[in-house]
Amino acid sequence: MLSNIRIILINTFHPGNIGSAARAMKTMGLSDLCLVTPQRYPDPDADAMAAGAMDVLTNARIFSSLDEAIADCSLVIGTSARSRNSTSNRPMLEADASAEALLKESVNCPVALVFGQETMGLTNEELEKCHFHACIDANPDYPVLNVASAIQILCYELRKASVHFSRTTIQPQAQPQADSYPLQEELERFYQHLEQTLTDIDFIIQQHPGKVMKRLRRLFNRARPESKELNMLRGILSSAQKASGVKGNTND
Amino acid sequence: MLSNIRIILINTFHPGNIGSAARAMKTMGLSDLCLVTPQRYPDPDADAMAAGAMDVLTNARIFSSLDEAIADCSLVIGTSARSRNSTSNRPMLEADASAEALLKESVNCPVALVFGQETMGLTNEELEKCHFHACIDANPDYPVLNVASAIQILCYELRKASVHFSRTTIQPQAQPQADSYPLQEELERFYQHLEQTLTDIDFIIQQHPGKVMKRLRRLFNRARPESKELNMLRGILSSAQKASGVKGNTND
């Protein structure tokens, strides 16, 4: 449950980042923001960056230590810039695996995702308190994500984990209107009209008609014309027939 | 190849977002930033937000139109805030599916991911030029991602896709042929040829040409014609022109 997932910012230096965090959280459906010893808060810069997420910002809870902020959590994951090659023997999780772990556990109990101070990140002492370290895979030559960006990516992965994410293309066919697509017989009349027109304008002659029509059918099947579009195409065919001196034949 | 994936920002209002885009790109291993009519650039705010990604920022290319920026691209994906429930019948892809599609195609040819102006997003005219629309799943009550956040998420998904592909064996036959899809400029010549032909056969006359062409662009973008298919369509147009007494004009 996203409502059981707590985002904790420790010792944040720029209040703008607190506002950006609130906005990033709300866009992904999270709401529980906790601030440990923020250096400037409340602050107009935070309000400005929060934009439409002022509710998340104003409901943020302030704590004087990480211990207090995570006291009631069963799982705590700290974000770390340390590369997976680091000598640290603590369990590192990719961003998506971290999100999965937090989401599973959040069904039963509050869980926390912790972000350190902008330049320093989490201290070793703070990392000791985390069950896992979340690591966002980044360009080894410049892995320096802005803290707001890191928060946005992890909140995005949390949302992905929370909705059963479909990796398939969302095709318009998924929700077709009752009358928006032509019946197969209308489609067939269109193909007859198309073949007739291609013959009238002498395109189908030197080539094997079957092959041309097969390729055109494949093309139009991919496009899946709507009824309105099919009518427009029929109109174009009739115009081409008229222009070629043949009486426009709509095959109806 | 991440190096073949172009990030295009159109008409950006806040130069800080251009800098943030450069930083987001570099952290995820992208480098090809293109700016279409930025409102303030270069600008110290852009430099400040770019942080360690000044190289990406200073190498950014400026264009006066989207057409120029995507002329040599075989796949163009536009980002859209439109929900999946929108009545738009254009193919929407989730962020990760968009990244996969761009990465696969980038092996053969430059591809582009396009972001619109901060408040307005991409115009309908700009969206017409895109094969797919990338949609970041977000909180329906507040889906308002900052443009820098949207760029960070999509660059993150592009990196994830590139790591995934480098791990999995890519079958050569699974890859489209280098010449299987037309470049955007070839597609634009086709649309010019189509509009000219529709005028020659007197189809475009009683109707508003812009609307007809807009509907045809949408139809053909959904079909995404291959180069062979586009050549066949060009041949049909020339035949229709000849039949209507106009000398076939291939616009080349």
TrEMBL record, chains A, B:
- What top-tier enzyme class does this entry carry? transferase
Catalytic reaction list: uridine(32) in tRNA + S-adenosyl-L-methionine = 2'-O-methyluridine(32) in tRNA + S-adenosyl-L-homocysteine + H(+); cytidine(32) in tRNA + S-adenosyl-L-methionine = 2'-O-methylcytidine(32) in tRNA + S-adenosyl-L-homocysteine + H(+)
Keyword presence, tRNA-binding: no
Tell me the GO molecular function terms.
tRNA (cytidine(32)/uridine(32)-2'-O)-methyltransferase activity
Which domain of life does the UniProt lineage start with? Bacteria
How does this chain assemble? Homodimer.
Q: Which family does it belong to?
A: Belongs to the class IV-like SAM-binding methyltransferase superfamily. RNA methyltransferase TrmH family.
- Function according to Swiss-Prot or TrEMBL: Catalyzes the formation of 2'O-methylated cytidine (Cm32) or 2'O-methylated uridine (Um32) at position 32 in tRNA.
Q: Which protein are we looking at?
A: tRNA (cytidine/uridine-2'-O-)-methyltransferase TrmJ
Species annotation: Endozoicomonas gorgoniicola
What's the name of its gene? trmJ
